[in-house]
Amino acid sequence: EEQLVESGGGWVKPGGTLTLSCTGTGFTFSTSAMSWARQAPGHELEWVAGIYPRNDVYYRDSVRGRFTISRDNAKGTVFLQLKDVTAGDTAVYYCQRGGTTGGHPSSRGPGTQVTVSS
Q: Is a pLDDT exceeding 90 seen at residue 100?
């Protein structure tokens, strides 16, 4: 059974930095495209960033230059570093298998809350 578990969410001040992690089990992580999506209160789920097995990366325009997606295949983990965060980045962040450039993922984790507030 595929399972994704996110961690690292929490509260961060505007302009701050936070790193999210997601560990995947039950599938071959090293050959899987991975992505992050988020859902802010009152908004639909939106794709944030994706990474292919060979480390090609893609970002939505609003986070490009501030967020960095990376992966450690040996640990079966994908990361999302959030820098220079704003209140608009407040959301539940979800790790996904697939969905790399906004398509439908094959699985999604339970999510981790990120709150940006002073």
A: no
